[in-house]
Amino acid sequence: MAPPMHRGTPNLYRAFAERWSALQEQDGSFYLGPALAATKRAPLWRPQRGLVVGDEGIQVIRNQCLHGMKYIINPTSNNLPQPLESPLTCSWHHASYSHSGVLERCGAMPIQPSDLKVNVCPKFEFHEWQGIVFELGRNTNKAKERLEITLAFLEEKLGKWLRFKERVLLLSTVSCQEADFLTTLFNYLDCRHVRRGHAETLARMLDTEKYFSVVGPDGTIIQWMGFKESWFETPLGRYYQEMNWPRPEYGAIWVTLPDGMMIEIYFDQSVVVSQGFADPKDWRKCVLYHDFYYPMGTPVTFAELHRADVFDPTGQEDEGPCSQTTANLDRAIDEGLGDEPVGFFEPIQEDRSPLFLQQVARRLHYPLTE
Predict the structure, then answer these.
(1) What CA–CA distance (Å, rounded) separates 172 from 37?
(2) 197 vs 25, 118, 298, CA distance in Å?
(3) Which of 31, 125, 265, 345 has its CA 20 to 30 A from that of 208?
(4) Are 57 and 36 in contact, with CB atoms under 8 Å apart?
């Protein structure tokens, strides 16, 4: 067996945090949410965009009033799609807009929209798939091509589990992590730590001895883990049985897209779409946003218990070791060791981490040494 690959250099982790979002803006994509009829959303991770599904179909507009750049659609604390009113109205001076972002009235201001040089909010290219919407980067052709390859692979491998059009978004959460984004992603790709690191949460559901993984043509990574019957003894497992859902085929299926977006399928029923970003002011921190989808008719109380019983505790359990890793990467940079390789990957249940590292380094044009 070849020796395990190192985990990159401290400076690579910092470069990822500082440059990755700009690369996504260029030719990547951003998940925005469900294309739910007669709704609007300004997602907390991208509040400068307005996802509007109204009488003019799906629209992605710049969510800034043309008068003073205030939000037209106010982000909400629960981050869920809101009922769509007509017209869209900025709360500052009551300027009103069509669902496609055309300024129709200037509200309390004695100005006619036709008198303005710009009276339409910029719109952005998007791609809709299975009822969810992705904004495309500035190089829309390349961004769309990359995204379509990814989604075709997901359709092929996970079509029977995803089924977003048969699901409802019940919960949306924000998790601020005292750890850098790349370390957080490598932790996500590491299934070996589940048994010890999450003994009372994920490990009661996931059988990591029944682990396997595949990689798509674009580098999308899918990891499957078996299901443990002991989960039925937990509060969430008992609630699951009350729903009369069938025994899960898998405990979890974790997907990591080349852009760093994550999709998690739990107990065959829940699909969590997660998008993370480095803190723009501090590379040593990141923020993760999670949208929780469930089959139509699932009570909100089930989603809330899923969050409280598994999801939030798991995030807290991960933050401790990840924050220590980030602190040591930062110390290495301070000591002048930023270009020295660190660590190694376990070859069986971190089997796809070297691939993700190589993809990151290649896209950042960052040289990796053996």
Answers:
(1) 18
(2) 34, 54, 30
(3) 31
(4) no
Supply the DSSP symbol for 4: P
The string of pLDDT tens digits covering residues 234-279 is: 999 999 999 999 999 999 999 999 999 999 999 999 999 999 999 9
CB 215 within 8 A of CB 234: no
Residue 129 burial class via C-beta count within 10 angstroms: exposed 0-12, middle 13-18, buried 19 and up: middle
How is residue 125 annotated by DSSP? -
pLDDT at 155 > cutoff 50:
yes
Q: Cα–Cα distance between 16 and 247 in angstroms, integer?
A: 40
Nearest to 226 by CA among 195, 197, 257, 196: 195
Token digits for 361?
Answer: 């380094």
Mean per-residue pLDDT, 63-81: 96
Q: Look up tokens 């110390």; give the residue.
A: 331
Global pTM value: 0.96
CA dist., res. 45 & res. 215, Å (int): 27
- Give phi and psi for 203, each to the nearest 5: -65, -20
State the chain's maximal CA–CA distance in angstroms: 75
